[in-house]
Each structure stands twice: as C-alpha cells, then as structure tokens.
What we know:
Elements: E1 2-6, H1 13-24, E2 28-32, E3 37-40, E4 47-50, E5 53-55, E6 60-63, H2 70-82, E7 86-87, H3 91-98, H4 100-109, E8 117-119, H5 126-132, E9 138-142, E10 151-154, H6 157-169, E11 174-178, E12 186-193, E13 196-204, E14 219-222, H7 227-240, E15 244-252, E16 255-262, H8 268-274, H9 278-289
Helix pairs in contact: 1-9, 2-3
Amino acid sequence: MKIAILSTEPTLYSTRKLVEAGEERGHEVQVIDYLRCYMKITSMKTQVIYMGEPLEEFDAIIPRIGTSKTFYGTAVVRQFEMMGVFTANTSQAISCSRDKLRCLQLLAREGIGLPVTGFANYTQDIDGLINTVGGAPLVIKLLEGTQGIGVVLAETYQGAKSVIEAFRALNANILVQEFIEEADGADLRCFIVGDRVIAAIKRQGAEGEFRSNLHRGGIAKKVRLSPQERSTATRSAKAIGLKVAGVDLLRSHHGPVVIEVNSSPGLEGIETATGVDVSGKIIEFLEKNARKGQVRDHAQG
C-alpha cells in the first residue's frame, strides 16, 4: 500500500513511529505537510497538489491535524475523500471532535457519562450558568483550548464569576463543568483503533495540578480498565465517528465520565507506558480496511 501521513512535523515521535511501522510492513509511506497542499476542485477531476505535483496514487491517509489548523487540514482530508482515498479518520469526524460543545452534545445524546456541563453566551446569565453545574468549585474551559491550555479550576463562586467575565469580555467561547474532585488530578487515556481499546494509561497530574496532561508535567502508567470504562471509551469514539482516537475519562462516584475525545492523540506517552505498538496497530487497521472508493463517514449529527 501507499500511505500518506498528513503532518506538519515529520520529526515528531508520532509521525516517525507511523512511518517506521508502515515501512516495516512493506508499505510505501510519505509524510505530507497538509498546509503546503493546495486543491483543484472540479467536477471532472478533483486533485490535491503538493509541491507542484498532483497526489493521486495513495491508498490511504493518516491525518495528524493540528488543532489550530483544523479548518484547512480537514479541507485537505475531505479532498482526498472525494478522490476515493481511505482515511483513518474522516474529515467530518475530525471536525466534530474539535468542536467541544458539539462533541459533548453527541455523547449526551448517546447516554454516555459526562461531567455536568453548562454553556452560555450572555454575561448576565453567569449566575445561572454557575448554578447549573452545582456551583463552585467548577472547571472553566476555552472551547478552542488544547493540552490543558485554557482550562481553569475556579475554587470559589466569586473566582468562577471573575474568570467567566474575563473570558467573555474577550469574546472567548467557554464551557463550565462540574469539578470531579474524587478523580484526584488523574484521568484515563484510552486509545481506540477500529472499534476497540488497544491500550490505556492513567495520567496523574503533578502535585498541586488538577490537569493531568503529560505536557504539563503529569506522569503516566499502564492501567487496567473496567468493562464499563472500556465500553464508555469505544461508544464515545463511535458516537463521534472516529476510528483512531484518544478518549479521556475521569473516574467519578457515578461511573466513568468523558472529558475529551481526541482525533490526533499522541503516541509517545502511551507506547512508552504500556509497551503496546500503537503505531503498528494503526497500520494494521489500514491494511484491513483501506479499499479504493470505500470512504465512509460515521460521524453523527
């Protein structure tokens, strides 16, 4: 097979490991900087053009789209879909995962456990918004945030009101969520390939830090999931339409709750902690599913 990895950073661990995994299995793998692609859109012959040459021979693509580049990146993925190229994650599913509000709404529709979440636009509704999630302490999240950036724990009612007012003064879209205190600064990252969890880790935040992101000093170790946690993770990825995903859960008193579904999850932390060849599993998924002209979009809503 000829596989394209859509990534702006060929030296990143995740990109390098996917290239190595593909080549070890005898495939031809090329890293394509999707921001340097341009598109010819026509009813006769749709093309993706890269460095002056049309890209026409790929059997499958693995999108690794940066959060800040979602609009253009998904347009490139969509162009490949129109050409009949199989994609590990569809453009619609990626877009859905990046819209945190829509993502939560779709998960709620499927009856999947979530922290109680509130969303509002008008600043005079702040008091009611805070009360909607049970008051302080509560978590305030920028809709456009990633890797823990733009996530604030407000421990008091007045603190929450001040942070929300500040964000809204900047015209930033935010969510507020109940604080799951019993999680104790830890979450579970469940890595989905196809329709099952292939690896899982527990990420523990640094001392005094409620965010467990490895980029913020958290540590990771292999973890055994309960059947309910495993089911919640796979149902979440399916609800968003993702076939390769990182689903982040918190362990709460009322069962697992989903805090994020990531369409371009990093490989280094989970491969290091578990010893699972996640990149190889992704290539195996392509081998089993990539067929020219069989581009299916499972995203709901």
